[in-house]
Write a structure and sequence with these properties.
The structure holds 2 protein chains of 2 kinds. Chain A has helices at 7-17, 19-39, 73-109, 111-126, 129-139, 144-153, 157-171, 174-181, 186-222, 233-245, 250-277. By secondary structure, chain A is mainly alpha-helical. Chain A is elongated and about 75 Å long. Chain B is an alpha+beta fold. Helices cover 30% and strands 17% of the residues of chain B. A 5-stranded mixed beta sheet of chain B has the order 18-17-19-15-20. In chain B, strands 1-10-9-8 form a 4-stranded mixed beta sheet, with helices on one face. In chain B, strand 17, helix 13 and strand 18 form a beta-alpha-beta unit. In chain B, helix 16 packs antiparallel against helix 17 (523-539). The longest helix of chain B has 22 residues, at 2-23. Chain B is globular and about 80 Å long. Chain B starts with a helix and ends with a helix. Classes of the chains: A mainly alpha, B alpha+beta. The A-B interface holds A 48, 50, 54, 68-69, 138, 142, 224, 228-229, 235, 238-239, 241-242, 245-246 and B 302-303, 306, 368, 428-431, 433-434, 437-438, 440-441, 444, 451-456, 459.
Chain lengths: 286, 588
């Protein structure tokens, strides 16, 4: 007889079989570790230091060369990792609770509550995304905090829709009716019983949300609406606009590659998680 | 209608002729002279009242003229009569200006006049044009220029009924060719207004006939004529056949003769038969057209600079062979990073300001961002105007880290201890951000922490006007070539939201400014301006940046192309050497 696994253990077992997904997971963990080290001042804290002459091509001393102020591009890339990961993490931390709560409430209660929430997010979603974040970024003070808030409050609609649909599917299932029979209240039903059953969607969504927040951060910083005063991949690409004319490619390559790797890793991971967490595939060998 | 047909026929005729000259190289040395210029933004139209930007101003000034203009060749910049017959007589202790007009100046032929024949310009037209600037219905963008200056005009404006027949004390038509302006207070810079497009003479008939469409129907007295403006991608001008006799100047500044700027002395203007102004917003498009010889001149694109110019040597061989010439332009401007003097930190803390100024490495900024050719400002007034001291070296304007650290300790912040982080607002673009980062890095060398914040231009204006900024980066370009236009930036009465965004307030400086602003141009005034120049350098109300220098390029066939900051109406001096053009075009 085949051994029984819990949903999560099973998912992990299946994920572990997917080598590319595992590599992606390792990449994400490394990025997260770098971000933590930078946050606690253990890495690239001295990015603003002049380490040598300006605009030196990559060499043994400076693996990614130096920028127009003689700063180490590698250190800027590393610091940029912290900015990107922070924005990714906190924007998810803001977007997911909003999306999940509103989606669950709408899906569970239905009726006028559902109508109101659907109307709200439909209206919200009809505003062009980039236009809205640019508008909010203009109004609030520029900086890392603003970036997290802006990207958080503007990116919950997709998840909200997804959770709402899933909760509608679940609310009349037997197990929910059983809870009702046992005298469980609304919040117990939603949060203790239904949500764990739709949570795999949240995880998948978070991984995709994360990488899209990173991309948005880069775009905003490129436009000068992002972080101030600290390096960001977007700002490095902005610098590269002028560098390229003089054949200085290293800032662009450094920042783009760092972004490319994490975005790709998160996409693959999101994809693999979807396969792994799909309850329909539970117990099957892929 | 007759006129229209005539112009149409003429333009078809000239087009064919033009294409034949350009296709048969070297031929037609005596053919039609066509000037090909470029404008880098949309031209809003041809109403002098609305000509607040450079692009519209330049186009307006080909068709319209003012009472005065700047001498094309002489430096420092000097006013000379244009529509006026001689400079005005100043009376009543500097309060009144009486202009005599040239006789026989004719408006262009246009359907707005009886029989389509242009009539003679009179003093009434000048009075009308100035009143029109004050007419609230017209919403002239040039009102600031004369606001509070001409006696009675402000009251007339407030009345708001746009009754042009009503007498205004300060604008008196004495006879057909004489007009007298009376000011409500002495303002020696008043005359510069008459060289700016806002005050150029318009015909009442044209304004009345075309109404809202007047902006697209230029009818002036100038050297060139253009038909209805269609907001297209090019504007074609033809020579005004009835232009009065005006000749090319025979004197200039030293060196003009050697550069060939005096060869055309005494020739009747305008020198070219036709001007084609193309509107090209993309630099790349302009550059390719210039290389093809389709444009006679343009500025050097930033990213092409190293290809075009060899540092310290001028043009590269490739461009020299093409017969291209370079033209240096020294801007009448100053860039600066201002302190907000209402902020507790900078108020009366001259040593802190001096220390920071000494820590800024401007040579580095110059090399990195201005190709090393701009002039590090030693004080506020730029070169080429009275009040600038050539060769003056400021005590606090040039890098000296040791002294900066000393002054910082004397200010009470040894090694920057006790100093809060200082926010620096700047208008966001890549170059400005990088310059701000350089500033941040330089300040960190003496322990001063800077936090640059890039914002949009309206946001910057907001934080400056509401005095919320600690420091901000800005630049000022001259409205007219008088040091007063720069020195007023530090006059306490002009504090935010006025032009003194740094809110500098210094009774000693104010006293000097008030005195100088009442004085007519004289050696005494220049001496006072120079005293103020040194004073500013010592008090460091701002960390000074640069007087920006740029380079323009022109083809070898383009003659008399001298740089001037005030290039309104200068196309009449330009010339095209068709023989040279035929020959040089084969080398492109």
């Amino acid at each position: 007889m085949e051994k029984e696994y819990s949903l999560w253990a099973d998912a992990f077992r299946r994920l572990a079989k997917n080598k590319i997904a595992l590599v992606s997971l390792v990449i994400v963990i490394v990025y997260a570790a770098i971000a933590l080290l930078v946050t606690f001042g253990l890495l690239a804290d001295d990015w603003a230091q002049e380490v040598g002459p300006a605009n030196v091509a990559p060499a043994a001393d400076y693996l990614l060369g130096t920028d127009f102020l003689g700063r180490d591009v590698l250190k800027k890339v590393i610091y940029g990792t912290q900015v990107a990961m922070t924005v990714g993490f906190f924007s998810c931390a803001i977007a997911i609770p909003i999306g999940v709560t509103l989606g669950a409430i709408a899906g569970y209660f239905g009726g006028i509550v559902d109508d109101a929430i659907v109307w709200f997010y439909t209206t919200f979603a009809s505003i062009p995304y980039l236009m809205m974040i640019i508008a909010i970024a203009y109004v609030m003070e520029r900086g890392l905090k603003t970036m997290c808030i802006v990207l958080g409050v503007t990116s919950w609609v997709g998840l909200c829709r997804l959770v709402r649909g899933e909760v509608i599917k679940h609310r009349n299932r037997d197990y929910v009716q059983a809870v009702t029979a046992l005298g469980g209240g609304h919040s117990k039903k939603i949060f203790t019983h239904i949500l764990p059953n739709v949570f795999h969607l949240v995880i998948i969504n978070a991984s995709l949300r994360f990488q899209s927040a990173i991309k948005s951060e880069v775009i905003l910083s490129y436009l000068g609406l992002g972080v101030q005063n600290v390096p960001s991949w977007g700002k490095m690409i902005d610098d590269a606009k002028q560098d390229l004319m003089q054949d200085r490619w290293w800032q662009l390559v450094g920042a783009s590659f760092a972004m490319f790797l994490i975005v790709l890793a998160l996409n693959i991971l999101g994809d693999a998680l979807r396969d792994a967490l799909d309850p329909k595939l539970k117990g099957q060998e892929s | 209608m007759k006129n229209l047909i005539f112009i149409l026929v003429l333009s078809i005729f000239s087009c064919t002729k033009n294409s034949s000259t350009s296709s048969t190289a070297g031929a037609a040395a005596g053919g039609e002279k066509v000037l090909n210029l470029v404008v880098t933004a949309d031209v809003k139209g041809f109403d002098p009242n609305q000509a607040s930007d450079l692009y519209a101003g330049n186009e307006v000034a080909r068709v319209y003229e003012g009472l005065l203009q700047f001498h094309y060749l002489k430096r420092p910049y000097q006013l000379e009569p244009n529509l006026a017959d001689g400079m005005p007589t100043v009376g009543d202790g500097g309060l009144s200006y009486t202009f005599k007009l040239k006789k026989g100046v004719m408006f262009h032929d246009d359907a707005c006049f009886p029989n389509g024949k242009g009539r003679e310009l009179t003093a009434e037209d000048i009075a009308y044009s100035i009143k029109r600037m004050g007419d609230p219905k017209e919403q002239s963008k040039g009102w600031w220029l004369i606001e509070g200056k001409i006696a009675g005009l402000d009251d007339w404006r407030k009345n708001g009924n746009s009754d042009y027949t009503k007498e205004i004390a300060g604008i008196k038509v004495i006879d057909k060719h004489t007009i007298k302006f009376t000011l409500s207070r002495p303002f020696p810079q008043f005359l510069y207004a008459f060289a700016m497009p806002f005050t150029y003479a318009v015909a009442k008939e044209a304004v009345t006939k075309y109404g809202k469409e007047f902006v697209n129907h230029p009818v002036g007295t100038g050297p060139f004529i253009t038909g209805k403006y269609n907001q297209g991608n090019q504007i074609v001008y033809t020579k005004n056949p009835n232009y009065r006799t005006v000749t090319y100047p025979s004197e200039g500044e030293s060196g003009d003769s050697a550069k060939g700027f005096l060869k055309a002395a005494g020739q009747k203007l305008p020198l070219v038969d036709k001007i084609v102004v193309k509107i090209m917003k993309e630099e790349q498009t302009r550059w390719l057209n210039f290389l093809k010889g389709n444009l006679d001149a343009m500025g050097i694109p930033t990213e092409q600079f190293t290809n075009v110019m060899v540092p310290g040597k001028g043009l590269s061989d490739k461009f020299k062979k093409m017969g291209v010439m370079e033209r240096k332009s020294v801007g009448l401007d100053v860039t600066y990073t201002a302190f907000n003097h209402e902020h507790e930190l900078f108020k009366n803390n001259v040593k802190l300001r001096q220390a920071m100024s000494l820590a800024q490495d401007r040579d580095m900024v110059n090399k990195k961002f201005y190709q090393g050719i701009s002039i590090p400002a030693q004080s506020i007034t730029p070169p080429n105007i009275a009040g600038h001291i050539d060769g003056f070296v400021g005590q606090y304007q040039n890098l000296n880290i040791v002294k900066a650290k000393e002054l910082l300790s004397e200010a009470g912040f040894p090694e920057g201890k006790g100093l809060p982080e200082i926010t620096l607002h700047y208008t966001y673009n890549t170059k400005s951000r990088q310059i701000a980062e350089v500033f941040q890095q330089n300040m960190s060398k003496i322990g001063v922490k800077i936090k640059p914040v890039g914002v949009t231009w309206p946001e910057l204006m907001k934080v400056v006007n509401t005095k919320q900024s600690m420091m901000f980066s800005m630049a000022w370009g001259a409205d007219y070539p008088d040091a007063e236009n720069f020195l007023q930036l530090l006059y306490s009465k002009n504090s935010a939201p006025g032009a003194n965004g740094s809110n500098y307030s210094d009774p000693e400086y104010d006293a000097m400014f008030v005195k100088a602003s009442m004085m007519e141009d004289s050696p005494e005034r220049t001496a006072l301006y120079e005293k103020m120049y040194k004073y500013v350098s010592e008090k460091v109300p701002w960390i000074l940046g640069f007087h920006r220098v740029g380079y323009g390029l022109s083809h070898g066939w383009f003659k008399n192309y001298k740089f001037t900051e005030f290039n309104h109406g200068v196309a009449k001096y330009y010339d095209i050497d068709n023989a040279a053009k035929g020959e040089l075009k084969t080398k492109l």
